[in-house]
Design goal:
The protein is α/β, with parallel strands linked by helices. The protein has one domain: Carbamate kinase, CATH 3.40.1160. 38% of the residues lie in helices and 17% in strands. The protein has eight helices and eleven strands. The strands form two sheets. Strands 4-3-5-2-1-6-10-11-9 form a nine-stranded mixed β-sheet, with helices on both faces. α1 packs across α3. The longest helix is centred in the first third of the chain and has 25 residues. The two termini are 22 Å apart. This is Uridylate kinase.
């Protein structure tokens, strides 16, 4: 499950909003009750986006990206505490070592936690600058042999245009990886789409705030937009 940083705050605001955080945690516990192993990659757009911050400051892109990675750890720890208060055992594994707050990401360790029924929150991005958390989600999904990558957003799926600006934008129910790349549909960056294509990991893009959407996705029912090898 890929969560954007914007999922943690109210629309148009920054930081972490308590009710929004609890809503996300409840959606994740819904998935766990269905039985699958759950790993979550968190973004940090509610605090800082490295690329855009470097463009409006004197901070170089490398440093700005690392700042963004540190911000994902803040989101991850907040989500961990909220999930555990709901009774769901959780571990945070980070590509950047912060031993006082989380474990270092090691593939076998992550798999062991998943096998024991724990939600694994993956923080710190890839641990390298110039890579988005979408690419991190695709990378971790590939490393952990995931059956599905859910991209949780605030819109219903992938549209032909920005639905907030164009009311006639078309919602796609299904697309191929190659169509997403050819149409330059910016729901995820090209590196993430290519990684999922090369490892044949289906992607479902959905609105996480719509109750029941994640359950539908896990149960194989139509929801949002599904991106697969062939349309």
């Amino acid at each position: 499950l890929k969560l954007s940083g914007q999922s943690f705050c109210k629309p148009g605001e920054f930081g972490i909003d308590g009710p929004a955080l609890e809503s996300i945690a409840k959606r994740i516990t819904e998935i766990c009750k269905l039985g699958p192993q759950v790993a979550v990659v968190v973004g940090a757009g509610n605090f800082l986006r490295g690329e855009s911050f470097s463009q409006v400051s004197n901070i170089p892109r490398n440093t700005a990206d690392y700042m963004g990675m540190l911000a994902t750890i803040i989101n991850a720890c907040a989500l961990q505490e909220t999930l555990e208060k709901l009774g769901q055992p959780t571990r945070v594994l980070s590509a950047i070592e912060v031993p006082a707050m989380c474990e270092r990401f090691i593939r076998r360790r992550a798999i062991r936690h998943l096998e024991r029924g724990r939600v694994v929150i993956l923080a710190g991005g890839t641990g390298n600058p110039f890579f988005t958390t979408d690419t991190c989600a695709a990378l971790r999904a590939s490393e952990l042999d995931s059956d599905l990558l859910i991209k949780a957003t605030k819109v219903e799926g992938v549209y032909s245009d920005d639905p907030e600006k164009n009311p006639d934008a078309q919602l796609f129910e299904k697309l191929s990886y190659d169509q997403v790349l050819a149409k330059n549909l910016r729901i995820m960056d090209h590196s993430a789409i290519t990684l999922c294509r090369d490892n044949n990991i289906p992607i479902i893009v959905l609105n996480i705030f719509e109750k029941g959407n994640i359950t539908k996705a896990i149960c194989g029912r139509q929801v949002g937009t599904k991106i697969v090898m062939r349309e």
